[in-house]
Amino acid sequence: MTLTVTDLAITRGGVPVLEGLSFELRPGRAIILRGPNGIGKTTLLRTLAGLQPPLEGHIDGAEDQIAYASHSDGLKPTLTVTENLTFWASVFGTSSIQPALNAFALNELADRHAGNLSAGQKRRLGLARMLVTGRPIWMLDEPTVSLDRHAVQMFADAVRAHLGQGGSALIATHIDLGLDGEVLDVGSNKAKPKPIDDFDGGFL
Amino acid sequence: MSIAAKANALWEYANPRKFLATSERVLPFFWVASIACIVVGLVWGFFFTPDDYKQGSTVKIIYLHVPTALMAINCWLMMLVTSLVWLVRRHHVSALAARAAAPIGIVMTLIALVTGAIWGQPMWGTWWEWDPRLTSFLILFLFYLGYVALWEAIEDPDTAADLTSVLCLVGSVFALLSRYAVNFWNQGLHQGASVMRAGAITGTDTEEKVSNVFFYPLMICIIGFVLLFIALVLYRTGTEIRARRIKALLARERVGG
Amino acid sequence: MIALLLRDLKLAFRAGGGFGLGLAFFLIVTVMVPFAVGPQSSLLSTIAPGVLWLGALLACLLSLDRLLALDWEDGSLDLLATAPLPLEAAVSIKALAHWLTTGLPLVLAAPFLGVLLNLPVPGFFWLVMSLLIGTPAMSVIGTFGAALTVGLKRGGLLLSLLVLPLYVPTLIFGAEVARRGATGMETQTPLLMLAGITAATIALLPFASAAVLRINLR
Predict the structure, then answer these.
(1) Looking at the predicted structure, is the pLDDT value of residue C30 above 90?
(2) B255: pLDDT confidence band, cut at 50, 70 and 90?
(3) Which residues on chain B are in Cβ contact (under 8 Å) with A52?
(4) How far A191 CA sits from the closest chain B CA (Å)?
(5) pLDDT for B53
(6) Residue A14: which of B16, B156, B257 has the nearest Cβ?
(7) What is the ipTM of this complex?
(8) Three-state DSSP class for residue A139
(9) Which of chain C's residues have a Cβ under 8 Å away from the Cβ of A66?
(10) CATH number belonging to domain A3-203
(11) C172 contacts B181? CB cut-off 8 A
(12) Distance CA B39, CA B64 (A)
């Protein structure tokens, strides 16, 4: 499943932030998204995930192939690790959560309430959720925040295994994960303001 | 000009600049005409019509009560139409016109309620009666409040326009439902009021000549209030467009354009 | 879909889930009424159907701001919106979960509170009946209000301001059924109207709720 983006322009809060974005995400490949803070990486990921409409351009490659992980993990503190994962597994219609528990070393924590986990453990649980979605294209927004070096390695291994099975990933991060993929720096795609005398342009 | 071409020409006014230029040209006419109509209608109605044989001089509040009540409802209808236009065609002017109209609707509803109470006091012997028509207007007033509060609460203008438009659509259905519910709940004291039956309002159905005496100044007042409403909406929409533009320019400055 | 329903129910029943708060509120409001209007049983039995309906409505309203806001804060809503489950179904399920954890307990508690207010005997059946039919509409309408205000920092008060006018038809017909039932009058017309409103809101309003939720998630 190839994700093709052509001449994409996106807005945040009604203000254009990025424009002229074109790239292709092929199976087995990863793209590392780079760019200064506030450039619109999160907005780009949200747009690709189908949470907001693009201003211009096309996104081809079905939306329902994408699994998206935002800054927040969507965990319920009063549910256990297993319950949290099982819920998302049944929403996405997959059955087994065991591989996800294994990949992120969550087996010992399986019966703990998510509210009692440390920040890094929560993050691991949030990333384990990607595995139970069963979707081929991963969109990850700063996935390594609050992970220790060991856990970062765990995450990189999980992504590598995912790529090995023909999946793909678009990852906004500033850490070098040692993945097989190219770097996409969106710094040069910063939207230029429209001419000031265009009323509708100034209006938007 | 074919109908399609005419329709296209109409959409041109959805361009903020074109809207501003045109509204500035026609506004003076609307101001003058509306004030002239209202002054003529009110002076004629207050000083040159006889007292009603049943209601005495209190009947004359009709010249404020009926036009404002009509505009209170028409204003919501206009907001409904402009909300639909915004949702379907994404014309910013349309959403801003809905936003601009809401406070006018609130004021019209309030005037209608207050004049109704002032009229009701000598007629029914009480300032407030949970009469279906009065109650419906009170509920309409609550809908207006919620609508304006939602506009004020949301920062992003496009999100606010979308959400208030959906609220306006859903609210219209529920307002209509409330109207029927309230009618069912209490069959009231209020006259079956319709301008087309002005004779019935004034209780002078039997004497056609006398009812006409009330009818003409009332019609002039209604026309005056319609014109006043249009003038206010055009004026306020212009203000909203400029405010929106300032916001857009500030945002542009922030991103460093 | 069932997974979402089960999760919401589980969350409501676990510690801090807020189950029972609405019920306690309903109880307290009902107990306060005689303090406000006086203990004459004839007066209380006249106003009992209306007071119980209003109390149930307010208890329902009170729990609405948690309906979607928690899922919004922890990011679950974003993830749900990208899940295979249509958002229309998700909001319907959340409304159902709200009704099961708030509306249904209110319906079951109402007769006991009716005793406190000296509700006439024939009124009990109609009170329960009208609440049973009316409370689902309150949950569905409330979900729409919660979806409208989900992104706002202090949405609670605004939520009440938006939702209460939408509750007017339900309240009028529902309380009318209960009042007529208590005085032995014919209840068919308002009951049918109430059922019609509930059916129509369940069928149509989730589309509006999902639409505004999508707008808020943008």
Answers:
(1) yes
(2) low
(3) none
(4) 9
(5) 65
(6) B156
(7) 0.91
(8) strand
(9) 82
(10) 3.40.50.300
(11) yes
(12) 12
